[in-house]
Every structure is written in C-alpha cells, then in structure tokens.
C-alpha cells in the first residue's frame, strides 16, 4: 500500500470515529457530514490505488466511484446516494431548523451504521 493510499484511509478512519463522537454529543447533522467525508476519502484512496494519480478535488461520491469503474452492490447503493445528496445541505445549510428535523438521532444512527458497512466494503476493494 502506498503512502498516499494509507493516508487517505487513515484520514477516513479518523473521520468515521469523529462521526461516532458526534453521535454521542448529539450533533446529528455533523454525523452525516463526517460519514460523507469518510466515504469520500476512502473513494479517493481507491482512485490513488487503481488509477495511480491524485484524486480530483470533488465531493461527489458517485463521480469518484464512476472514475474507478466501481460497481456498487445493491445493498450499498442507497447510502451512497443519500450521502451524496446530503453533502451540500450539511456543508452549507440554508435552513438550519429544517436540517435539524431531517437529520435527527434516528437518521444519524442509520447513516452511521450504513456508512460503516459501506466503508468495510470499500476497504476490501482497496486491499
């Protein structure tokens, strides 16, 4: 494993642990944000591994997956799409009260659980 791949994966792991901590502190919007960031970094590790180049500066998970020809299994398609859609409103909230209602404890727990499953699968694609 190259240093760049290792760095992306280490950062991804740090971010998912941060999501765990944010769930405990009830900062649910940022749980989803950190889930997205963790998957983004895992995908960028895959870009480095498969394409041997610096990943593009994008937050679009689907673009990154397509870039490396990744076929997402059915059981991971939904979380990938949901995280991709959540990227902009959690990053740049326009209506904070609506966002807080949308991303409550139950939603954050589900996002976190499904993201961890997705990350496990993504890491298997890298090894």
Structure description:
This protein has 6 helices and no strands. The protein has helices at residues 3-24, 28-51, 61-67, 74-91, 96-102, 105-126. Helix content is 79%, strand content 0%. The model has no long low-confidence stretch (mean pLDDT 95). With 127 residues, it is mainly alpha-helical. It starts with a helix and ends with a helix.
List keywords for this structure.
mainly alpha; 127 residues
Task: Report the helical percentage.
Answer: over 70%
Query: How large is the share of residues in beta strands?
Result: under 5%
User: What series of H and E elements makes up the topology?
Assistant: HHHHHH
Low-confidence stretches: none
Largest sheet: none
Instruction: Assign an overall shape.
Output: globular
N-end to C-end Cα span: 8 Å
Mean pLDDT: 95
- Radius of gyration equals 14 Å
Number of DSSP E strands = 0
What would you call the structural class?
Answer: mainly alpha
| Count of helical regions | 6
Strand-helix topology:
Elements lengths: L2 H22 L3 H24 L9 H7 L6 H18 L4 H7 L2 H22 L1
Quick rundown:
The protein contains six helices and no strands. It is an all-alpha fold and 127 residues long.
């Amino acid at each position: 494993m190259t240093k760049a791949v290792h760095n992306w994966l280490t950062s991804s792991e740090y971010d998912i642990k941060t999501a765990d901590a944010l769930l405990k502190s009830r900062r649910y919007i940022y749980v989803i944000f950190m889930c997205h960031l963790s998957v983004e970094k895992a995908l960028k590790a895959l870009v480095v591994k498969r394409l041997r180049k610096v990943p593009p500066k994008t937050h679009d998970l689907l673009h990154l997956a397509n870039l490396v020809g990744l076929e997402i299994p059915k059981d991971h398609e939904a979380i990938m799409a949901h995280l991709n859609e959540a990227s902009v409103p959690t990053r740049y909230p326009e209506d904070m009260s609506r966002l807080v209602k949308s991303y409550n404890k139950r939603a954050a727990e589900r996002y976190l659980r499904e993201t961890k499953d997705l990350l496990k699968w993504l890491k298997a694609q890298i090894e």
